[in-house]
Amino acid sequence: MPAKMNHYDAAIRVCVDQVEEGRFSGRMVSRRFTAPIPFTDVGNLLLRVEEVLNHQNFPQAFERPRTFVPQSAANLPVAADLNSGMSREEVEAASGAVDTFLLYIITRRNTTWQGFLEWTDGSPRQEFASALEFLKLVGGRLFQTH
Question: Organism's domain of life (predicted)?
């Protein structure tokens, strides 16, 4: 990815379309993608985000596993740069049927994510120091209200 990418332009908008039986599903949109990326549950969401981060190397992982097989984005619609991804307007217009939040991953130290999320309803920004904390924040809100 070009050096001009910053964490705010690289945010991932998560549109939650369905919450039932302790699971949520929906789609992700971002200027980092050429098309929305669907996810079927929280595990699928985590794996797809991690694939995108690894493919684009932003933010760069603190540690990299050794492999003899080239990394791929598993046919995900990942943009070469922000100019070839979804438009800012298209990303901002996306909204989930249940809820929507912006995911900002600032660093990937200690083999996990650090960053914050912002709910589009104006709720205060929530910071997380690991993927587990991220899951607790999202799950706590989605399963408490639905």
Answer: Bacteria
Do residues 104 and 8 lie in contact, with contact meaning Cβ atoms separated by under 8 Å?
yes
CA atoms within 13 A on the CB side of 56: 29
Tell me the per-residue pLDDT of 14-32, one tens digit each, with 9 for 90 and over.
999 999 988 999 999 999 9
Please compute Rg for the chain using Cα positions. 15
* DSSP code string of 88-110: HHHHHH---SSEEEEEEEEEBGG
Distance CA 58, CA 48 (A): 14
> What pTM was estimated for this model as a whole?
0.88
